[in-house]
Write a structure and sequence with these properties.
The structure is a single chain. The longest helix is centred in the N-terminal third of the chain and has 23 residues, at 3-25. The protein is mainly alpha-helical. It is built from 33 helices and no strands. The chain is elongated. Helix 14 packs antiparallel against helix 15 (260-272). It has helices at residues 3-25, 29-41, 45-57, 65-77, 81-92, 102-106, 116-128, 132-144, 152-164, 168-178, 185-200, 204-216, 224-236, 240-252, 260-272, 276-288, 296-310, 313-325, 333-345, 349-360, 366-381, 385-397, 405-416, 420-432, 440-452, 456-468, 476-488, 492-502, 512-524, 528-540, 548-560, 564-572, 577-584.
Length: 585
């Protein structure tokens, strides 16, 4: 290069940069890139920074994070604060400098975890050089980075400097600093000012938080229309929680015209991005149905997602109920117990009770029993009647604690004044003399109270006491009424009892066809004695429906469940035609 070239080269490079900037402003980055390259090779830091941006953004050149970062490093090393601030941000997002050869050997750009050390280096240089963006990044690292790097006072100070310089990230950060003293009216006013400024500049998190303030009326008048507007803006920018809020607003018509289709779409997007509340709402949509029937399998998949993301207690309980009934998923009481445990540990009292009921039926494990009993005991001692009842049942059945009938009676009596289930259980304890002197009369009175309130189990037990004259006079007609009501409500034992009373031998008119109907209903639900009685009716034509083959089949099912009388009757029957032929052969 000649002397003249050496003299004119910087001038020419500066001119190239100016020309490139003008082309970039007009949107012609492809034509600008060669000019930037010329200026960058002459050592102009701004050109190096702009080339780095071009590679990162794929503007005028194929995208390449590796090339982009290398050019940013050159500019940053020369003291260009914008490059330093951007490089610090990239390092925080795991997109900083890579080891030599990483892109070459992997064949693609990779994203590592945050590099706080390098980010701190460049952020401090940018901050001290006057970059508001660098000050915001430094404030973040000092406030939320690794414990060894934290300095809360310095973080607050850098956020404040950045906010006062008008940087939206700094304004958001400083607003969060001020939130620690939000009870001070002057501080709160400043918080709202900075958060509003960051939101107006389009920062997604600020838009979401400002929407939340309007939604709840914190620091600003409550305005759900304004909240919906800010949620929508943040949602479009990819803020996951805002997408969930915006979807729910559209789904329910909160602050915006209802649009269930778009609402569900935004909720799905948020759920797939990891928002557990959105996943739970989508699950609820499918579980309830609407224009279409409920889709429990689809509901279960969304409930499961919400549970897996963050052990969402509402979704855990909903999924547990599906596993209890086998709706959309395999019926699995043990899986239901595990899900109830998740909800119960999160404070859902209904799930604590449901888990307790499963434990009484032999599901769950010993730790479930202990935790459940502890929940009930703590709540009971604080005056919760439902917990007092549940704790009483734990004591009566030895769930998570050694069985103690005397203490059980005390807690059940305490709960009986306000809870139907407790009235039934306390009545049983009195009638059976468990933990208290046996008193069938008083026990029957308590059970009658629960029966009058509509409790099915209480109706069945009261009917049995009336049938046998326990704790009071016999009253077969009243007993039949109670058994019938319980049977119609689906109680299998009551179905059998109703059939037995209608079959004759009681102080009510016999009705054997009706008796057979109830025996069949109970038999089909697995009641072994009903299966035996239905077999007898069909074999002996008791109700005008003679069917020996079916009668034998029901006796065989009863015998398989251990009913000795059914085995005896089967043995006395002549061989079935097929059996006789097999013996002859």
């Amino acid at each position: 290069m000649g002397v003249l070239d050496l003299i004119l080269s910087p001038v020419s490079a500066a001119a190239s940069l100016r020309r490139a900037v003008r082309l970039t402003d007009k949107g012609d980055r492809r034509a600008a890139f060669p000019l930037l390259t010329r200026a960058a090779r002459a050592g102009i830091a701004e050109a190096e920074f702009r080339i780095g941006r071009c590679y990162l953004e794929g503007a005028g050149v194929p995208p390449s994070r590796g090339n982009g970062v290398r050019w940013l490093e050159k500019a940053a090393t020369r003291g260009y604060v914008e490059a330093q601030a951007l490089l610090a941000t990239l390092c925080l997002n795991g997109m900083g400098p890579e080891p030599v050869g990483a892109v070459l050997f992997s064949g693609q750009n990779t994203t590592a975890g945050p590099d706080f050390e390098t980010a701190m280096h460049w952020a401090r240089r940018a901050a001290e050089g006057g970059s508001a963006e660098g000050q915001a990044v430094l404030g973040f690292i000092l406030g939320s980075g690794p414990e060894s790097m934290r300095d809360q006072d310095a973080s607050d100070a850098w956020y404040k400097r950045s906010a006062e310089a008008g940087c939206p990230q700094g304004q958001l950060g400083y607003a969060l600093v001020l939130a620690r003293e939000a009870q001070n009216p002057d501080v709160h006013e400043l918080l709202v000012k900075h958060l509003r400024a960051a939101a107006e500049k389009g920062l997604a998190t600020a838009l979401f938080l400002y929407g939340m303030m309007h939604d709840r009326g914190i620091g600003v008048p409550q305005d759900q229309s304004a909240a919906a507007k800010y949620f929508a803006q943040a949602a479009v920018k990819g803020h996951v929680s805002a997408q969930a809020r915006w979807g729910f607003a559209q789904l329910r018509g909160i602050g915006v015209a209802p649009n269930p289709t778009d609402g569900e779409s935004w909720l799905r997007r948020a759920a797939l991005a990891g928002d557990p509340e959105a996943a739970a709402v989508v699950g609820d949509i499918y579980a309830k149905g609407g224009a279409l029937p409920p889709n429990y399998a689809e509901a279960a998949s969304w409930f499961r997602r919400a549970v897996d993301i963050r052990r969402h207690k509402g979704a855990a309980r909903a999924l547990a109920m599906l596993h209890l009934t086998g709706a959309g998923v395999p019926r699995d009481p043990d899986e239901a117990a595990g899900l109830f445990r998740i909800a119960a540990e999160a404070g859902d009292t209904a799930s604590q009770a449901d888990l307790g009921n499963l434990l009484l039926k032999g599901h769950g494990d010993i730790q479930d029993s202990i935790h459940t009993r502890e929940w009930f005991e703590q709540a009971a001692e604080s005056g919760d009647l439902i917990a007092a009842f549940n704790f009483g049942v734990c004591l009566a059945e030895g769930v998570g604690i050694e069985r103690d009938d005397q203490r059980a009676v005390q807690w059940l009596r305490r709960a009986a004044d306000g809870l139907v289930n407790a009235q039934y259980w306390y009545g049983r304890m009195l009638a059976e003399g468990r933990g208290v002197e046996k008193n069938p009369e008083e026990g029957r009175a308590w059970i009658a109270r629960a029966a009058d309130a509509g409790m099915i189990e209480a109706r069945v037990m009261l009917a049995d006491m009336m049938l046998n004259g326990t704790g009071g006079p016999k009253d077969h007609p009243a007993a039949l009424v109670l058994f019938s009501k319980a049977a119609e409500a689906g109680h299998v034992g009551a179905m059998f009892a109703t059939g037995a009373m209608l079959g004759g031998g009681h102080d009510v008119p016999a009705d054997r066809p009706a008796a057979q109907t109830w025996y069949r209903a109970a038999a089909e639900r697995g009641h072994p004695h009903a299966q035996m009685m239905l077999g007898r009716y069909l074999l002996r034509d008791v109700a005008g429906d003679h069917n020996p083959a079916e009668g034998r089949s029901w006796l065989e099912r009863a015998a398989a469940q251990g009913i000795q009388d059914a085995k005896v009757e089967l043995a006395a029957l002549p061989p079935a035609p097929g059996e006789a032929m097999a013996k002859e052969a």
